[in-house]
Specification:
The protein is of the alpha+beta class. It has seven helices and eight strands; from the N terminus they run E-H-H-E-E-H-H-E-E-E-E-H-H-H-E. 27% of the residues lie in helices and 21% in strands. The termini are far apart.
């Protein structure tokens, strides 16, 4: 088990509090962060980008809210990251994304979360690597530490991001709010008719064809979200 450390080289506090949120219009940083965490989880589960996931069953994304402790967790069963990708995940300049193909920006959800979290913990498990990182704002910088060959709680291939919310945001996330965000931004993945098409239970409906052209080739067995969807 080895560890490596790093930190930003410029005024990260100003960047995450003033510059980064501008990319999301009037969205609160907590909402923008959650949207990016879901986008990253969906990207990590795409069979068109990662054919090896084709036999893994329905893409699954878990969302766990612990209001008492003030923790939000987003867990996917996707491709996971290797060591180089995990390091770049903490870089405010580098990106591990495939330009024009993926819907999220690597690490963006975690970067936004530095605004309202005491720390952010990321665990990842890929074909070639297993490790986790801890990240927080300290002064004007954002130091991080990566531990190789170990995860804390993740027991399968994929990635888990845990946000340890500060006192002001401890009760921000609720099941109702999560439902609203997912419905507003990811409705095609939640439509019960479309989910039956994904799984082959029914044929493609003409009025759904344009949506399916996008999603059917990406999540061929559907996407499983929590809260009864």
């Amino acid at each position: 088990m080895t560890t490596s450390k790093g930190k930003s080289g410029f005024d990260i506090r100003h960047y995450v509090q003033s510059v980064l949120p501008l990319q999301y219009g009037h969205a609160e940083p907590q909402i923008a962060s959650f949207m990016e965490l879901i986008a990253n989880a969906l990207d990590a589960s795409r069979i068109d980008l990662y054919p090896s996931l084709r036999d893994a069953g329905a893409s699954k994304i878990e969302i766990i809210i612990d209001g008492g402790e003030g923790i939000l967790e987003v867990i996917d069963y996707g491709i996971g990251m290797d060591k180089d990708q995990l390091v770049k995940y903490h870089d405010f300049i580098a990106s591990t994304k495939k330009t024009g193909k993926e819907i999220g920006f690597a690490g963006q959800g975690a970067k936004l979360a530095l605004n309202f979290c005491s720390r952010v913990v990321t665990e990842t498990w890929s074909k070639s690597y297993k490790g986790y990182s801890e990240w927080q704002l300290e002064g004007d910088e954002a130091p991080w530490e990566i531990t190789d060959d170990r995860v804390l709680q993740l027991d399968h291939r994929g990635t888990k991001v845990s946000l340890y919310l500060d006192s002001e945001s401890k009760s921000f996330y609720t099941e109702e709010l999560i439902r609203e965000i997912l419905t507003e931004h990811y409705l095609p993945l939640l439509d019960p008719v479309l989910l039956k098409v994904y799984t082959g239970e029914t044929s493609v409906l003409e009025d759904k064809r344009s949506t399916l052209r996008i999603y059917k080739s990406i999540y061929d067995k559907g996407v499983s979200f929590p809260f009864g969807w």
